[in-house]
Batch of 2 targets.
Target 1
Amino acid sequence: MRRRLDRLAAEINDGGSASFDTAARAVAIGGYFTEDVVIDLGRGTSPIEGRPLVIDMVARLRPRIRRFSVKFTDVAVRLTGLDEAVVELTAEIIPRDDIEDRLDAREFSAELIRWDGEWRIRRATAVQALR
Amino acid sequence: MPSLRRLTFGRHPRRTAVRLLVLVGAAVVLFRWVLIPVRAEGISMEPTYTSGRLILVNRLAYRFDSPARGDIVAIRLAGPHVLYIKRIVALPGERIGISAGEVVIDGRPLVEPYVANRRRWEVPDVTLAANEYFVIGDNRGMNAADHDFGRVDAVRIVGKVLF
């Protein structure tokens, strides 16, 4: 599961500037999520619902995302069933120009299911440290 | 004149080596399990702490005691490496609100000598649960929308700031 998350981070961080690269990369990243995924980024944001929306957003944001790299750290996995798990992790966003150590870091709680032989994210919720 | 070797290692090099090892071991234990060095980033704790200031957090401060009002604490934001530094202003079970910039606890205004400037923040009353504290930075001269503050679960309080 950790390797799967590392591959997701690698896909997000991978370069490629041609438009077909962007579209193909977005579809590849979408494969890490279930069809009915819900991503809740927390206070002040609307949840991202469904894999098609995730793919669309990744494709649109890719030029901007290229300026940063994403790293998943402090990954803690808890199996809740044979094909289900809950993962707590920290997503760090690091500028590629090395001006700052870290732009942002957010803790997430994610539900993963194993579907078609691969672990996929069904729900990801940003954890609010201060409410 | 003593030799360079004696100046460097003393009259008993073996004792010096043992002392050095003990010192290094103590430093490792101290900074691995007791103290966390943190570099403050941002303005939310001004004037108490300015951005870039090095802070030491005592991980063991609440081993036998509970956090108290006025304590400056480190709060785990994301993973063990990303921390907020905030001040506790309200304790579990208390009702807290902010009216015209003034913190009010159970209907009584809180005296806060560490606050230099205040904007007229308004935050509706909330009653803290048994495991919740209310934390806020000292810089009340900034917009409330730009300042992260609020209720925090006790388990997220990593330690108390030493200085």
Target 2
Amino acid sequence: MSSARDRLEAEQADLLCALQRGEGGPAGLPPGDLKRTGNVLRSKRRRTLASCVPVTVTALGPDFPHQFELFAQQSAPLEDGKGPMDARAFLHFLQQRGRLPREAQGEARQLGLRTSRWLRWLP
Amino acid sequence: MMDQHERQGQLGALGVGWRPQLALEIERRQDIGFVEIVAESFPNGHVPQAIMNLRERGLPVIPHGVGLSLCGAQPPSAERLALLAKLARHCESPWITEHLAFVRAGGMESGHLLPPQRTWEALDVVVENIERAQAALPVPLALENPAALFAWPSDQLSLVEYLTEVLRRTGAGLLLDISNLFADACNYGVDALQVLDRLPLERVAYAHLAGGVACDGFYSDTHAHPVPEGALDLLRELLARRPDCPVLLERDENFGDLASWHAELDVVLTAQASAHRLAAESSGVA
């Protein structure tokens, strides 16, 4: 890559890291702008994910925003259009934490997750 | 080869973003003149029969990419360009459209369109990316202005300077997103009317219009809320300058309220009819 491309990559990567961390970013960028951008991106991610697994979201009720935030903190965003993959990862996250509602099992199976009360005994 | 004016004439006045949830409504509504499909929604290059039915009815179908990251450091991916090209050939599209934005860097995805650095150095990279894309695509490319979620401290060019320079250097068309321009006016004080006065509006392939919402003093172009009156006013200003500009309504969520979607389409048609009438009156044509 040219040095101009290298500089562009470094600056943009720095921004994406800062958005994931919630701090830092390009010199001179107001922290409020970074936080707001992160909120907008997370909000879009949450809405897209929710539209892929509406039954799960309904079943989680008021716990959905919290569970989503925990999930978003430990998993990087996917590219636009990969909502079902993100939703599958979220259901897997819930499943691993023992938080997948029973009502969500249909959606989980549709997204390719194995659901079974005996799952924990499988290697 | 068709020139830009002829390409623009291929589009009907009113367009919609095709979504599966709107398929039946789009098929039923006979005044829709073209549709846009999100390219990444059809990763194998094949589109549903519902879209081919629209093609058979004579509606242009435009592949609209969201993942090319033309303002990123990496050259556009051959695989993504091939998908856009395949869709355009399959649908006999007059245009392919994408964004003046980046969506990935350092091996990470943003999940959303982020604004480019408007510096002269970054512009050189972007122009090279666009030229590479144009060389790989079978039809002309039109580029959309994104809504800025933030302003890069390093910016050297204004929005209109940046857009004008990109168009001048690449020869690409412009997909003028009126709602994104409205968002920039609300959030960053961009003089939207000055932008309309200074842009080469003859290069606009078509315009986008979508709804949004203000929250904590920041307006977001969500494609999920009603189109605000301010954005409609800006659309009317565009049409006053270019009465023949095709306009496409985008909606990505909130499909339960189809009455409002139809109503917004009717508002666009009314605005276009009014602009045509005023243009005819001012030119002295009866």
